[in-house]
């Protein structure tokens, strides 16, 4: 049987007294594309940030490709992971954020090469070749020597995607990748994400307000509410299905708002 590439097991998260995630069990299979949908404040970003190692767990475990992310096994017991272990397991995870997070003092090429050289210890020449090929793929090879400030938001986001992809992650997390973009730049970024999704091998976790896009790309939708996944299934199974009323209510409210 195929093992999940990501496994959340009874994951809870509190901020002080506020419980944001409530004992979530959730698997992502290799190559699976999962969209997280739900009302504002329902915990989607927090759920993804635990996998990005940007927030720590309150309880439960997360495994990536069979390895514990936040824990290590020592003498048959699970203990808190060392920062070295966390760094190692995190290498399987690629992240793309709303606000690009490119290094402003590095050129586009240097941004894409940086983690390959410093984290993966790829020789510079090889990293340069891999990076240029990836920039070509996202349509930005001719911008290799410019600085991020000289790029449009859509171009910056495509560089951020290239930078994540060269690390060959097993899972890519897209957290609102188009929310900071002017509307006319959204399409070019979605197109790249769609291309990557169609290549198939990599699992994806996608948080977005681009509902049509999410429904098109996702193999599975997880609908969040109140810190739990209250409905899930493929878009085909869920859309207009009376057994998944929460998603359908959400989508009809969403469509009504967008057509105003
Ligand atoms: N660092 C933090 N400290 C305290 N509370 C937080 C923190 N981060 C998130 N929260 C709270 O956790 C809850 C879930 O937030 P989260 O951002 O995960 O929701 P979301 O579903 O992603 O919402 P949105 O769609 O608006 O981004 C909210 O009530 C939020 O205010």
Automatic annotation (TrEMBL):
Belongs to the ABC transporter superfamily. PANTHER family: AMINO ACID IMPORT ATP-BINDING PROTEIN, GLUTAMATE_ASPARTATE IMPORT ATP-BINDING PROTEIN GLTL. The lineage of its organism: Bacteria, Bacillati, Bacillota, Bacilli, Lactobacillales. This is Amino acid ABC transporter ATP-binding protein, PAAT family. It is a peripheral membrane protein. GO terms for cellular component: plasma membrane. It is found in: Cell membrane. The keyword Cytoplasm does not apply. One of its GO terms (molecular function) is ABC-type amino acid transporter activity. Pfam families: ABC_tran. CDD domains: ABC_HisP_GlnQ (cd03262). The keyword Cell membrane applies. Transmembrane segments: none annotated. Keywords: Amino-acid transport, ATP-binding, Cell membrane, Membrane, Nucleotide-binding, Transport. Its main location: membrane. It comes from the Bacteria. Residues 6-251 form the ABC transporter domain.
